[in-house]
Amino acid sequence: MNGALVLCRVLHYGSALVLFGVGAFQGWLAPPALANSLDAALWRIVRFAAVVAFLSALAWLFLASGEMGDGWSDDPITWYDVLADTEFGHVWQFHLLLTALLVGLVLSRPGGHWRLLCVLAAFHLGGLGFIGHAVMLDGAEGWISRASHVVHLLAGGFWLGALAPLLLRLGKIGDAELRLEISDVLRRFSGLGHIAVAAVIASGIVNVALVLGQWPTDT
Question: Which stretches are transmembrane (predicted)?
Answer without folding.
Answer: 12-30, 42-63, 90-107, 114-137, 149-168, 189-212
